[in-house]
Write a sequence for this structure.
């Protein structure tokens, strides 16, 4: 076996060697082709690891699959290109061969040009794989890539993502940035390697992953909408297992820096812990119209969850504080009037009671982008009851304060006659 051989043909049929070698004469002069049988293949390939393996299979399908499996689990040959050559196409066998990670296939009946081009492609791919492996080893030595998980290390987190954000912007492409982390309860239970494997198995090669501090993982999903992020999260969560509590924050990559998005995502994790939601979407609703949201995503149960989270933020940041402020402002101004107010995710109520009359303003959330504000007056000569429907994005402190003050004024016009 020549030390310079870089193509090895594995076949039990001597005639195949006579058929294939003449078809490969246009390869480079330095390319040499040697032949071995199935029984001697493993030994021959270990002694002289080639750039490409041409593996011919006729009737010995099971033996062929076992050989491929052996070669792909051997440290010396696992990255070597395997071009499978078959006498006749068999779909089930071919699918099984691809499952074992062959590079490509062709039939013995293929014309000379196809056989030559596919072999050249196998040689080029092997060169590319070796180059990438050398570069990756260097990145690991420089601690740019985490050796344990294979993801980028936290030290280069900002540099990596700012570069990726620039690529997205240059290509006018959208993207989603996620953060996946063990919950407080799960920190002592979940195996970081298990979580890393779950992330690796359910993300694409084009996705960019950084192994952050405290086993937090940042995941950039290029050319992906929220719906795609929901799908990825579901798969990661299932792979991690029910006994491993993990949480997630999600945000669109817009015109923000990674530092800004990082703060948003870390706050999302805090909210996930406090609200016991495993997934929290960073709410940019105040910067975008509700119509824009509905254009970007479809109406599904998961989108209801998105809007529900947005409503809960309105409840905490707008409804509850405004109700409290208006109560304090008017409780001494409204003579002999009792003011009661309460706020929760089911119904928020602002109630005015006076002898002979009662008025209530109720805020309810029927789902998705709308909220309803019902104004109900009871008593003689009371104003007409009405409903105000608003998009979530339309409800802010100024709007709600104005609605409450108008409601109080209507109450005063009848009850203080």
């Amino acid at each position: 076996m020549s030390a310079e051989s870089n193509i090895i043909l594995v076949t039990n049929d001597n005639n195949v060697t006579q058929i294939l070698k003449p078809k490969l004469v246009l390869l480079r002069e330095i390319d040499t082709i040697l032949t071995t049988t199935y029984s001697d293949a493993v030994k021959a390939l270990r002694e002289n690891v080639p750039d490409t393996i041409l593996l011919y299979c006729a009737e010995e399908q099971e033996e062929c699959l076992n050989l491929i499996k052996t070669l792909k689990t051997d440290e010396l040959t696992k990255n070597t290109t395997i071009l499978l050559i078959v006498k006749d196409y068999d779909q089930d066998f071919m699918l099984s061969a691809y499952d074992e990670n062959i590079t490509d296939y062709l039939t013995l009946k293929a014309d000379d040009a196809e056989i030559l081009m596919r072999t050249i492609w196998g040689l080029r791919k092997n060169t590319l794989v070796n180059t990438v492996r050398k570069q990756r080893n260097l990145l690991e030595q420089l601690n740019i890539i985490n050796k344990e998980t294979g993801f980028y290390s936290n030290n280069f987190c900002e540099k990596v993502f700012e570069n990726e954000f620039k690529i997205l912007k240059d290509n006018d492409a959208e993207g989603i940035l996620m953060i996946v982390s063990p919950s407080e309860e799960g920190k002592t239970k979940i195996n970081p390697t298990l979580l890393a494997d779950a992330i690796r198995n359910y993300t694409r090669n084009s996705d960019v992953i950084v192994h952050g501090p405290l086993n937090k993982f940042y995941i950039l999903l290029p050319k992906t909408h929220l719906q795609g992020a929901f799908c990825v999260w579901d798969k990661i969560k299932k792979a991690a297992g029910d006994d491993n509590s993990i949480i997630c924050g999600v945000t669109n990559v817009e015109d923000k820096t990674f530092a800004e998005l990082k703060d948003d995502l870390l706050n999302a994790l805090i909210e996930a812990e406090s609200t016991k939601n495993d997934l929290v979407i960073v709410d940019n609703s105040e910067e975008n119209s509700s119509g824009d949201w509905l254009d970007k995503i479809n109406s599904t149960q998961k989108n209801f969850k998105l809007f529900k989270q947005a409503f809960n933020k309105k409840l905490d940041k707008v409804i509850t504080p405004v109700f409290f402020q208006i109560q304090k402002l008017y409780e001494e101004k409204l003579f002999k009037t009792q003011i009661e107010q309460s706020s929760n995710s089911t119904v928020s109520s602002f109630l005015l009671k006076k002898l002979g009359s009662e008025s209530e303003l109720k805020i309810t959330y029927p789902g998705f982008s709308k909220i309803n504000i019902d104004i109900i007056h009871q008593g003689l000569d009371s104003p007409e009851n009405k409903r105000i429907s608003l998009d979530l994005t339309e409800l802010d402190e100024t709007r709600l304060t104005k609605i409450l003050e108008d409601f109080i004024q209507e109450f005063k016009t009848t009850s203080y006659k």
User: Anything to note?
Assistant: The chain has twelve helices and 16 strands. The mean pLDDT is 84. The chain has three domains: 7-139, 152-282, 311-415. The longest strand covers residues 357-367.
